């Protein structure tokens, strides 16, 4: 089948490359000429494990190409995916649909023959209906239907998630649109991946409800972690004991500095705005959002407390800046809340991140300096803080860490070394998350 994907970010580029791997012919379009130039030179504008090989293989096979102008590709396509950003609208937290609308207007001008326009971007309930009206207004003669196919991939394991998803959700209004979507996902349905067909509004809501639920799990365990610190118990063991119950499950029960990233913060907010407008407040999600904001801000105070109540004139080594490992994405990362507060408190900050330093530089470069590796930033520091659980921080030589530090303080906001007493054995004063006095 012939497919166009509009937007070559984390979702668009991965989806496009994976659809071409399924055997479809895919054109990925982006309005940013620098991205398309890079892709045409075999350079991937984002860090996502495995993506470079996947793209190269499918370009070589003639199934994947890139363009700035979408007209030609859209005219030939049976399905056109919109995978552009839907950030929080400044000031009110509604999803900003301006990129989606601009893409839809351009698509409308280019469609020929029956075309399914698919929102892969996360869009509020009712957007599909509104886009269909926009398409009909812009191109009255066009034979189009808007489908909703929200994406559930995670940055860092995006290809695996796309190729082996727990489920595919497709919101459609007609049998012929369903037939197009079924053809696109045939390789997955042949592999027994559940493909859930539903109406468009249901599909749009499944995405937001799923993200809000996952954010709630994180928010919940973070508060249990706070309780452990006061009353005793180790939150990692509490989470394990809870997660072994199949009704609960072990995933998303890792206490930490609060969720960040390009999705949970903006999607929880957008869902709250939708619910408010509909007059059905979502009190649980509201509490989760507030608790998470408070938590991120409180993390710097924890670091300051671990340093004896003041970081003025002290040097802090930060390991990890991205919102999670295996990505270069800095959007809403807890580091963005923590670094300025430490800086304001008088700390000198040295940071290392395996992939995120280029993205971090324009956001945090004024407040910190970068080091070439973990030990370079730890050398002479008054405390080391693990902020993102990259694998290489799981394999630190703790004897060397203890030797290099000026003061032996380790603040581990991801509980990488939360089990056992390895840091203590090396003479480090260890501060994890959610550990009571005797735990
Ligand atoms: P991104 O910011 O990485 O990429 C968006 C791309 O769209 C950019 O390259 C931009 O230049 C391009 N673009 C914007 N307007 C365009 C237009 N009119 N024509 C062509 N290109 C255009 O975004 P992302 O992280 O890939 O997210 C895309 C959508 O997918 C969002 O709605 C997001 O909520 C959703 N989503 C993201 C993830 C994730 O992990 N990143 C997971 C699931 C869903």
TrEMBL record:
<dbReference type="InterPro" id="IPR014027">
    <property type="entry name" value="UDP-Glc/GDP-Man_DH_C"/>
</dbReference>
<feature type="binding site">
    <location>
        <position position="35"/>
    </location>
    <ligand>
        <name>NAD(+)</name>
    </ligand>
</feature>
<dbReference type="GO" id="GO:0051287">
    <property type="term" value="F:NAD binding"/>
</dbReference>
<feature type="binding site">
    <location>
        <position position="266"/>
    </location>
    <ligand>
        <name>NAD(+)</name>
    </ligand>
</feature>
<keyword id="KW-0560">Oxidoreductase</keyword>
<feature type="binding site">
    <location>
        <begin position="252"/>
        <end position="256"/>
    </location>
    <ligand>
        <name>substrate</name>
    </ligand>
</feature>
<feature type="binding site">
    <location>
        <position position="331"/>
    </location>
    <ligand>
        <name>NAD(+)</name>
    </ligand>
</feature>
<protein>
    <recommendedName>
        <fullName>UDP-glucose 6-dehydrogenase</fullName>
        <ecNumber>1.1.1.22</ecNumber>
    </recommendedName>
</protein>
<feature type="binding site">
    <location>
        <position position="155"/>
    </location>
    <ligand>
        <name>NAD(+)</name>
    </ligand>
</feature>
<feature type="binding site">
    <location>
        <position position="207"/>
    </location>
    <ligand>
        <name>substrate</name>
    </ligand>
</feature>
<comment type="pathway">
    <text>Nucleotide-sugar biosynthesis; UDP-alpha-D-glucuronate biosynthesis; UDP-alpha-D-glucuronate from UDP-alpha-D-glucose: step 1/1.</text>
</comment>
<dbReference type="GO" id="GO:0000271">
    <property type="term" value="P:polysaccharide biosynthetic process"/>
</dbReference>
<dbReference type="InterPro" id="IPR028357">
    <property type="entry name" value="UDPglc_DH_bac"/>
</dbReference>
<dbReference type="InterPro" id="IPR001732">
    <property type="entry name" value="UDP-Glc/GDP-Man_DH_N"/>
</dbReference>
<dbReference type="GO" id="GO:0003979">
    <property type="term" value="F:UDP-glucose 6-dehydrogenase activity"/>
</dbReference>
<feature type="active site" description="Nucleophile">
    <location>
        <position position="263"/>
    </location>
</feature>
<dbReference type="Pfam" id="PF03720">
    <property type="entry name" value="UDPG_MGDP_dh_C"/>
</dbReference>
<comment type="similarity">
    <text>Belongs to the UDP-glucose/GDP-mannose dehydrogenase family.</text>
</comment>
<dbReference type="InterPro" id="IPR036220">
    <property type="entry name" value="UDP-Glc/GDP-Man_DH_C_sf"/>
</dbReference>
<dbReference type="Pfam" id="PF00984">
    <property type="entry name" value="UDPG_MGDP_dh"/>
</dbReference>
<feature type="binding site">
    <location>
        <begin position="152"/>
        <end position="155"/>
    </location>
    <ligand>
        <name>substrate</name>
    </ligand>
</feature>
<dbReference type="GO" id="GO:0006065">
    <property type="term" value="P:UDP-glucuronate biosynthetic process"/>
</dbReference>
<feature type="binding site">
    <location>
        <position position="324"/>
    </location>
    <ligand>
        <name>substrate</name>
    </ligand>
</feature>
<feature type="binding site">
    <location>
        <position position="122"/>
    </location>
    <ligand>
        <name>NAD(+)</name>
    </ligand>
</feature>
<feature type="binding site">
    <location>
        <position position="30"/>
    </location>
    <ligand>
        <name>NAD(+)</name>
    </ligand>
</feature>
<feature type="binding site">
    <location>
        <position position="86"/>
    </location>
    <ligand>
        <name>NAD(+)</name>
    </ligand>
</feature>
<dbReference type="Pfam" id="PF03721">
    <property type="entry name" value="UDPG_MGDP_dh_N"/>
</dbReference>
<dbReference type="InterPro" id="IPR017476">
    <property type="entry name" value="UDP-Glc/GDP-Man"/>
</dbReference>
<feature type="domain" description="UDP-glucose/GDP-mannose dehydrogenase C-terminal">
    <location>
        <begin position="317"/>
        <end position="419"/>
    </location>
</feature>
<keyword id="KW-0520">NAD</keyword>
<dbReference type="InterPro" id="IPR014026">
    <property type="entry name" value="UDP-Glc/GDP-Man_DH_dimer"/>
</dbReference>
<dbReference type="InterPro" id="IPR008927">
    <property type="entry name" value="6-PGluconate_DH-like_C_sf"/>
</dbReference>
<feature type="binding site">
    <location>
        <position position="260"/>
    </location>
    <ligand>
        <name>substrate</name>
    </ligand>
</feature>
<dbReference type="InterPro" id="IPR036291">
    <property type="entry name" value="NAD(P)-bd_dom_sf"/>
</dbReference>
